Amino acid sequence: MEKVKLAVIYYSSTGTNYKLAKMVEEGALEAGAEVRVRKVQELAPDAAIDSNPAWRANVEATKDIPVATSEDLDWADAIIFSMPTRFGNLPSQMKQFLDMQGGIWSQGKLTNKVVSAMSSAGNAHGGQEATVKSLYTSMMHWGAIIVPPGYTDDSIYKAGGNPYGTSVTLGQDGNMIEDVKDAVKHQAKRTVEVAGWIRKGKQ
Questions:
Q1: Which residues sit opposite 170 in a β-bridge?
Q2: Is the pTM of this model over 0.70?
Q3: 35: closest CA among 180, 166, 191, 150?
């Protein structure tokens, strides 16, 4: 059987969601998927990026990661999105990427894509759940099939227990507080597994 194709679409300013995206890639590859990791286009001006050394460092460290396009979504059987919260909502970079998909949406090319999402914030109640659910609202308009992790594995409890999608809190040092790698990999494998079921059922 042909491999499930997974697109990992992320936005990351200082690197947290890039790290989550790479954990997704690791889990999906272990599950036998073909994976593309793609960042959405940065919209912030250089002055804003340069005001935060960690932001500039991440931009430089990930400069070779391709920018996500509509073709990546069309190619994929499944998509996992990862982004930080912005006041409990999507960052503008991710929102713009979604807003630009009207063309392939109108052609029905986003229907039945298997989708899951994850998020991060600077404190434990910083809007991670709201951000994931905001992303899922757009996915309902796509006619996508949303696959949340729920409580399908013990790793989810260890990671903080978010049933909507793995989320992480950053400490003052900029590092992740919760141990989320196993939960991220489980979410990736679950998404790939369900995508395989959907594709097999359509054949």
A1: 176
A2: yes
A3: 191
The CA angle 71-77-78, to the nearest 5 degrees, is 100
pLDDT in tens, 97-131: 999 999 999 999 999 999 999 999 999 999 999 99
Q: Give the separation between CA 156 and CA 60, rounded to whole angstroms.
A: 32
C-beta of residue 116 within 8 angstroms of C-beta of residue 149: yes
The one-letter amino acid at 1? M
Which is nearest to 195 in space by CA: 38, 66, 28? 28
Residue 57 φ/ψ region, left for φ over 0, alpha for ψ in the -120 to 50 degree band, beta for the rest: alpha
The letter for the amino acid at 162 is N
Report the distance separating Cα 130 and Cα 48, nearest Å: 25
CA–CA separation, 124 vs 165, rounded Å?
A: 14
